Amino acid sequence: xxxxxxxxxxxxxxxLLAENPAALAMAGATDLLVxxxxxxxGHEPVLLSLAHVAELQGITEEAAFLAIGAATPxxxxxxxxxxxxxxxxxxxxxxxxxxxxxxxxxxxxxxICTASPAGDSLPPLYLLxxxxxLASPAGERALPIAAFILGPGRTALExxxxxxxxxxxxxxxxxRERFIKTGRRKALAISVxxxxxxxxxxxxxxxxxxxxxxxxxGPTVVRLPALETExxxxxxxxxxxxxxxxxxxxxxxxxSDLRASAGYRRLVAANLATxxxxxxxx
Amino acid sequence: MKVRFELNExxxxxxxxxxxxxxxxxxxxxxxxxxxxxCGTGECGxxxxxxxxxxxxxxxxxxxxxDGARVTTVEGLAATTAGATIQRAFxxxxxxxxxFCIPGMEMAALALLRQGDAPGRECIREGLSGNLxxxxxxxxxxxxxxxxxxxxxxxxxxx
Lengths: 282, 159
What we know:
Shape of chain B: globular
Order of helices and strands of chain A: EHEHEEEHHHHHHEEHEEEEEEHHH
Order of helices and strands of chain B: EEHEEEHHHH
Strand order of the largest sheet of chain A: 4-5-10-6-7
Number of strands of chain A: 13
Shape of chain A: globular
Number of helices of chain A: 12
CATH topology of the largest domain in chain B: DNA polymerase, domain 1
Mean pLDDT of chain A: 95
Number of domains of chain B: 2
Strand content of chain A: 15-25%
Strand content of chain B: 5-15%
Low-confidence stretches of chain A: none
Radius of gyration of chain A: 19 Å
Helix content of chain A: 25-40%
Structural class of chain B: alpha+beta
CATH topology of the largest domain in chain A: Uridine Diphospho-n-acetylenolpyruvylglucosamine Reductase, domain 3
Radius of gyration of chain B: 15 Å
Number of domains of chain A: 2
Distance between the termini of chain B: 45 Å
Structural class of chain A: alpha+beta
Largest interface: A-B, 25 and 32 residues
Number of strands of chain B: 5
Low-confidence stretches of chain B: none
CATH class of the largest domain in chain B: Mainly Alpha
Oligomer: heterodimer
Number of helices of chain B: 5
């Protein structure tokens, strides 16, 4: 048995965390309580429940960005008109996470802090230039998501710090935005490979801007910035599609595990990208 | 700690370890064994309950999280019009095989049918996508929820 701390305000949460440095921050608990099953009975860490911390809940629009409270569950993100307007790619991804009950519990901040290579909200957040806002008794700071996530299960979160909000800059939407998840089944599946893409064409039908990200094919989300640059000005035809497939096949770094082999993941990562690029022409 | 919540429309107060799993609190402390534990890791939906009207997995919740909440378990299903309609439809459509997944299925169906109009099959499949039936009797389960949706909708129009 261990204590469960249930603060209602952020300053209270930070104070409790400072007083209980070994406490585990718990939002939706869908991952944390599964991992906690392995704890030695009698030695379970104290839980710091963030579900009722007012500052961590909900979605607000500010001048330059959309702010999503870290403890906002995915079902609320999916239902929110502001997220549909500014981050439809995140909505697409959120709809593939777990099943309906999991989406009522699991939170965006939790998905980020878990830092799984297969976290489905992560590829969209990289493409949306998300910034992770952190608070500690010493003050606030914000990091780009790519600087916050360091490796599988590893983040830049420091002792005594909590993720408070996810900030999405209000940039113009891309005409083509697509998230695709492949897994063993449609619901309650951990991604074998996931893909997020955003693109716009110029008036001649050539690629004006393209951004792509893959999940589950490396220790963190994989981006291929050189390929993105190289594709600017390319026409959407068979040679371009082929070039994308090759670059992705060589660029991703998957591992083999119980869900899929590295070779399969490499192939699927390339196929998802070529499908996306091919569809730009249609 | 003392946890106070509303359980199946009755006030409940219980002295319990704050980190006790809700599924254990329900099944072992309160002897409400309708809620089932399948996987214990949030992958099967057998332990689905409603908390403040939303589906939650009771194997991934601790007692302290229930404080102040409104909780419905499968034992409280029959007391609601929608719940009774769902139960009747499951019986009439022959949707129950071994029965282990059914409490979770019915709770997920209740949350779905409360959202409004009679849902179509695709919408029902999506609504039940977090609930596994290892007898694989999904077709009749979807039939039952479709029927319950129709019956409820017809009932509403009559009123």
